[in-house]
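We emphasize that the prediction below concerns an isolated chain of 307 residues; any contacts that depend on oligomerization or on bound cofactors are therefore not represented. The input was used exactly as deposited, without trimming of termini.
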Amino acid sequence: MHQQTDVLVVGGAGVDTVVHVPELPLPHADSYMIRPGIETRAGQSGDFVALGLHALGLRTHHLDMIGDDHEGDLVRALHRDRGIPLTEAHQASGTKRAVNLVAPDGRRLSLYDASRGDDAGRFDETAVRRLAAATRHAHVVITQPCALTLPVLREAGVTISTDLHDWDGVDGYHETFALQADIVFLSTTALTDPERTMRDIAGRGRARIVVATAGADGSYLLHDDELTHTPAATPPAPVVDSNGAGDAFASGFLLGVLSGEHPLRCALHGTVAGAYACTVPSTGTAAIGREELLARVAELEKERAAG
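Result of the prediction step, given as a token string:
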């Protein structure tokens, strides 16, 4: 089949309720007066990756399970308004949702509603095969029932990426994704020895590229058995929220991969996209465009070469 899509994003559609708090951790109190208020908007990990890829000019398609509820309507509207094709399967337990507590310095704590998952849920395999046949690459979010799509995507011959987020390097659920993807993103947050975990993923799994993001400390890239560090980029505006920064990093990195760039340059793409995301309010869903990203990457290369 003719490839009509650059990236198929599988999973991670949902809704967040954003609550601004005076600090994290939040001290116990009977009540707090919240400003600038509490807002509910569509946008979880898969949505943010899809939005980021789309803003960068990549043909993007999103597949996930969504409920017949208000939250599902918000997800549908987000994709419709941005012009991102969405293939949905019915989720009887409802659309995924979470509450994000956001501190003044941009840090966040996410509380996910575990009742909105369905361990018995399945994507229609015929639909997955049809979408896989029309795409170059698949980015698989670690939500249910996405693990079941991995063998189907592999059989279709598409390359696969995944983001393990704050994996501790041990949990078996995340390991399923870690060992079946060609490109693995994860955060250093819960890792006692990031390099050891990265090499373990590459050594036991299929990954040819493993990237560990470390917030303001930049990111680490394992490729061809060599570990390299990429410093963080300076955000183009004040940092207001870290929510979605990892998803933006993955989007930028994948633009580089699909454009044939060396992984080290892909890391610069990701770094710039992630820094931009930190300047977007938690209630927003804006993403950096291709022209701005490439211009900033070129500036960074000059700065660091002169450096």
